[in-house]
Amino acid sequence: MLAAGWAGAFPLVSGLGPHRSWGLCAAAGYLTAAVAVLVLPRRWARAGSVAVALLGAVLVPLFVLVVGGQGQSEVAVIERSGELLLRHGTPYLAEPRTVAEYTPYLPGMALFGLPRALFGADGRLAEVAGDARLWCAAAFLACLAAAVLPTRQRRGRPGRLGRRRRLGRTAAVTAARTGVLPGALAVAALVASPVAALPLCVSGVDLPLTGLCVLALALAGRARPVAAGWALALACALKWTAWPAVAVVAALLAATTGRRAALRAAVTAVAGTAALVLPSTLRSPGPLLRQVFAFPTGRGDLPTPASSPLPGRLLADLGPAGWYAALALLLLAGAAVARSLVRRPPLDTRAAADRLALGLALAFLLAPAGRFGYLALPALLVLLPRLADLPRAPRPPLLPPLLPPRLPPFLLRLPRRPRLPRLPRPHTPRSNSPRPHTPQVVPAP
């Protein structure tokens, strides 16, 4: 009911057509899902309500918006950047004249616009297949599936099949008792939630970034530093707001796997990001700096449309002094989060996701220019580990073993000497009769 009320408010308060269309469809879908929980049997209530919410809040509005050609301006920006990247080798215009001609993303985001450049706009089918929202949603779902679903087990002997089935049933019973959803159902519930359904249908620009950050945290929890580094490299090549995730993943690996693993993940992330971003940077360094860094922070030639009344934006509206004050608060918040990573590093995937969500939420709140929609990324980072059982890294022992492990077993367990019982002292009763006198014999001279 809360999700239905949230979606139903968009047709009343939002001035954007795609948001109003999504709100109408999603409100009906969430109300139907609430009724399905009461009508369906208890065994199928959870899966049925999630399926109804997914249909009403994601599939139906996405089909209506994509076929009707409605969407936020970010969709057209991504598709134009893909065409520019394919033709000129850079996704940035040299001299943009309007806000719609700016590309406030790193070159990796232009990859989602390449299908539009390849398929073109000849026919309705080509327009639908080249829509950037579909490819952003596909990348988001693939990352969530790889992060939540367990890894494939090795093939074993036929005798182990029964044990695996028993373990699967045990995991299902544990998930039912603790409230943790299975992998596929958790992904479906997260996608059907308003924090993911709205951006997926109207823009989809932040979803690949969110999925890659979640995947990097999950891979770090599985003690796979190189794979986590590559996921971070792809995320950092999309938007520079993903760069704090490198520090969080490195802190998680250093606390659970070792400093070498953290260094390998960080080096892989930095090298992969440089390989993806450097070609476009060398080709057009000026437009990249102006459109990617200056424009989103409110220091570009044109004012940014990100003007939600957040604390950083309110300070920046006071003038140059307020802008520098917002920047100082942003740096102080970043330093506080970095200090917490050093002094109290996260020890599992959920703690790392919460720490990254905290840092990004502070950054979005204190940035000189921001939107309420940016807070969907921290919300997803908080919700996903609680909906599904993400992997946790093994914790190292607190104290090293006292004896080396190569000693014989009989030396590792020395037998203790048995303690004998303490016997009572014998008691001699006292007599009241005087002691007999013994005469002394004096030798004769």
Quick summary:
This protein is mostly helical and 445 residues long.
* Discrete helix count: 21
* Biggest sheet features: none
| Unreliable stretches | 151-180, 393-404
Structural class: mainly alpha
The end-to-end distance, rounded to whole angstroms, is: 126 Å
Note the overall shape: globular
Order of helices and strands: HHHHHHHHHHHHHHHHHHHHH
Approximately how much beta-strand content do the residues carry? under 5%
Q: What is the tally of beta strands?
A: 0
The radius of gyration computed from the alpha-carbon positions, rounded to a whole number of angstroms, is: 33 Å
Helix content: 55-70%
Output mean pLDDT: 79
Could you please describe the fold and organization of this structure?
The chain is mostly helical and 445 residues long. Helix content is 63%, strand content 0%. The protein is built from 21 helices and no strands. It has helices at 2-8, 10-13, 17-39, 42-68, 73-88, 114-119, 124-129, 132-148, 161-178, 183-192, 194-202, 207-221, 225-236, 244-256, 259-283, 285-294, 311-316, 320-343, 349-366, 376-387, 409-412.
Ordered list of secondary-structure elements with their pairings:
Elements: H1 2-8, H2 10-13, H3 17-39, H4 42-68, H5 73-88, H6 114-119, H7 124-129, H8 132-148, H9 161-178, H10 183-192, H11 194-202, H12 207-221, H13 225-236, H14 244-256, H15 259-283, H16 285-294, H17 311-316, H18 320-343, H19 349-366, H20 376-387, H21 409-412
